Amino acid sequence: RATLLLSRCLLKMVKGNIIVPEDILNFCCNGLQGSTSPPRAREPGEREEAPGAMASPSAARNPTEVQMSQLVLPCHTNHRGELSTGQLLKWIDTAACLSAERHAGCPCVTASMDDIYFEHTISVGQVVNIKAKVNRAFNSSMEVGIQVSYEDLCSGKHCSICKAYATFVAQGPLGSKVRLKPLTPQTEEEKIEYSIAAERRRMRLVHKDTLKDLLTSSPQETELETRDGSGAVPAERTRVESVELVLPPHANHQGNTFGGQIMAWMENVATIAASRLCHAHPTLRAIEMFHFRGPSQVGDRLVLKAIVNNAFKNRWVPVVGVPFPPSPRPSAPSSLLSSSMEVGVSAEAYGQEMSVSRRHINSAFMTFVVLDQEGHPRTLPMVAPEPGDGERRYREASARKKIRLDRKYVVSCKQTEVPLSVPWDQSNKVYLSYNNISALKMLVAKANWALAREKEKVRMYTLEEDKFLSFRIEMSVCIPASRAFSLLSNLRRRHEWDSHYVSAELVQKVDDDDMIYHVVSQKLRNENKPQDFVILASRRKPCSKGDPYVVAFRSVTLPTHPARDEFTRGETLCSGFCIWPESEEMSKVAYYNQAMPGYLTYVTTNVAGLSSDICSTFEACEKFLLKNKEDLISRLQDF
């Protein structure tokens, strides 16, 4: 088609007695090949090469996926020849924004960024590879997942740097919000990210409340161990203030300052503040979840302020699954030592030199360490906070550290790296609830479920993985999905249809979505006493059309309910119900379970057809639902 258009233009030029250069004539005569030589005929079966070095001839890519590769040059690095974290943040934000705009079809701005943990530094001469794609679109905002790795061109080595999640908002004319089209995930990985994105969004919305609740429940007389400590550095000495003028290269096509540019400026002043405490060159290890409060434009002056809030001494960090030793030893692995400092940074904008009011753009909290020649964290000086606001920031830094560890080790780690019964604590309730729901959603989104048995309306599927055998059992029931959701989320009524349950006592109502039960079940074979469980039950309504109602179960540990001699303490890692509306009066009800060792024989016996106990139990569940679907109490329990 392009050749035809060029030929028509050429004909007009000839008719108009316009002299046509020879190279244009050759270009038109030989087609769009980029040279005057005739096109090479492809061999039979040979595929046309996709344009661009990043293109893959295999399966079709996600249409929102953006890939960026950057060679680290000396201008991008610090004095150690390592890539500046601020420069990396600019690249991350740019790639994520391009992905968001691909889906939205209009300009987008950065609204927030989740925690980022930097696992390695990147040296000059290495290549940074960034992949970003939209995980899920909500009304006017969308979550973009970003994966960052580096590539050593000499050795061919690839290594992961970090994984991040950013939220972008689509903007129409004059800054108006744009309603986004829904995103349809295709692959198993995309379905998992799509499903869990709703949980991550929920966690972001309650982030401030989580910190407030922790500070409220903590003793007001929290020890300020550095107040009288010898050698403590007054926090005021680490204070930094700097101003930046927003120029056109710092902004997008709408004139709004790039979020990544603001983050780079904030990282710069935070590094200076950290250096003033340790008198060395610190390394940024993590950035706390943060939100942009408002935009800034070309011509704004950005005032950036930073101060060290707290320095955490050499202490054992309570990592999930790692025993807590009596005292640190010099030979302890450096990964278990916390020798770090938190720096608080803020950005404010004003439009004119004499302007009185300043707009709060962003606040962030960054964690730095100082590494020795072997790459191990060095001990840091103590910080002496100022009375008043300084002490408040000191305490808040300790609370944020606790929350950050909960998010990192409860939310971010793989299921196989989390012990079955995680200790329940009021301050980590948000993250345990997230882990509970997301684990079930990940199991639901798995591919390769195989039909194992079918008995009348009941279908049983299995999923065989390296470490787990999971089963799913489902049927369609004539009941509204919301009613089934209400009935099945109440464990106190489960004994009415599940003969394995003897009783379920509500121990603690955490909130409307999370409850903790003490469950007693029947004796297992070869056991002379019944089992008991302490179970966290988390439930969620659909986030958008097409989502199921979810009720998830997992074991937790409560100090008030330790293991007792009269019971065998059982544990469940991941189980629960998903309920999909099929019509106003019909629902598909599915139960999922990752079989634990003590339960495995029971499951395999049913899968092999040597027992129909599981199918019979699910048929009893159907009768229970039908019997109680008009129950007035159930209606009142709907929320």
From TrEMBL:
SUPFAM superfamilies: Bet v1-like (SSF55961), Thioesterase/thiol ester dehydrase-isomerase (SSF54637). InterPro entries: Cytosol_ACT, HOTDOG_ACOT, HotDog_dom_sf, START-like_dom_sf, START_lipid-bd_dom, Thioestr_dom. GO terms for biological process: acyl-CoA metabolic process; fatty acid metabolic process. Residues 62-174, 236-374 form the HotDog ACOT-type domain. It comes from the Eukaryota. Keywords: Fatty acid metabolism, Hydrolase, Lipid metabolism, Repeat, Serine esterase. Residues 40-50 have a biased composition (Basic and acidic residues). It catalyses: butanoyl-CoA + H2O = butanoate + CoA + H(+). PROSITE patterns: HOTDOG_ACOT, START. Pathway: Lipid metabolism; fatty acid metabolism. Pfam families: 4HBT, START. GO terms for molecular function: carboxylic ester hydrolase activity; lipid binding; long-chain fatty acyl-CoA hydrolase activity. One of its GO terms (cellular component) is cytosol. Residues 35-61 are annotated as: Disordered. Residues 449-608 form the START domain. CDD domains: BFIT_BACH. PANTHER family: ACYL COENZYME A THIOESTER HYDROLASE (PTHR11049), ACYL-COENZYME A THIOESTERASE 11 (PTHR11049:SF1). This is ACO11 thioesterase. It comes from Vidua chalybeata (Village indigobird).
